[in-house]
Structure formats: C-alpha cells, structure tokens
Amino acid sequence: MKRQMLMFLIGAAFMILLASISFLIYIKRLHRSISYFQTAGQYVQQGKLDEAVVILKDTLSKNPRNAEAHAALGMIYNKKELLDAALSELKIALTIKPDLINIYQEMYLIYKKKGMEDEAKRALNSYEKLKGSK
Question: Residue 126: pLDDT band by 50, 70, 90 thresholds?
C-alpha cells in the first residue's frame, strides 16, 4: 500500500512538473509575440512600414494562425496602398477570429478607396452588428 502511494505521489509530481514546463513555454511564446507587436507598432509610429512588415511576417512564419498579426499586416498594407494584399490579410484574420471588430472598419475604408460600395456597406454593417452585440 505504501509503495502504491509513493508511486502515485511520484507520478503526480511528474505531471505537475510537465504542466509547469508547458505553462512556462506558453508564457515565453506569448511574451515574444507581444514583443513583436510592440516593435512592429513602434516601427509604424516611426513610419518604418517595411520594417514592421518584416516583423509581422516573421511572427506569422512561426504562427500562421495569429489573427492579430494578419490584421496588423493588413492595416499596414492599407497604409502602403497595397489594397488587395491588405484585404487578403484582413480576410485571413477574420477566418481565424471573426469577432475582431476593427478589421471591419479597416475593410470598409479599403473598399471605399477601391470604389466597391456594396462591399463597403457590408463591412460597415458587420462592424455595427458586432459593436451592438458587445
């Protein structure tokens, strides 16, 4: 009986150790992701859009399902007047995370620039619908 209890305690301690290590790895990756966004944001504020694009593409190469990185990249492409690329990135972000409300505003602006009034209205309606539900 004592041997079984000892084995149980050793197993439980091992599981706690594994969970702790996994959590630390997750926190480290999360911190690194936040650092990328801060750096990209600083580059955008300084007008260094190409540098911000490099940082975001690097982030996406490591985690292609990062909706926020796709959204940020789409917004930078909009600033650079790369409207089709901007829409593509924003649509990817929405497929990953459809409740990112600011994406609809950005899409509205891009569709307006492109003269695509129907699409602009749909984006604006989606924005207002999500805004009303929050």
Answer: confident
Dihedral angle sign, alpha carbons of residues 110, 62, 56, 42: positive
**Domain that includes residue 31, residue range:** 2-133
Closest CA to 107 of 130, 83, 73, 134: 83
C-alpha gyration radius of the chain: 21
97-109 pLDDT, tens digit each? 988 888 999 999 9
Go through 90-127 and write b for each residue having 16 or more CB atoms within 10 A of its CB, e for each that does not.
bebbbebeeebeebbebbbbbbeeeebeebbeebbebb
Number of folded domains that form the chain: 1
Residue 49 belongs to a domain with what CATH number?
A: 1.25.40.10
Contact (Cβ atoms closer than 8 angstroms) between residue 36 and residue 56: yes
From the list 95, 106, 111, 104, the residue with the least C-alpha distance to 128 is 104
Chain segment 111-121, per-residue pLDDT in tens: 999 999 999 99
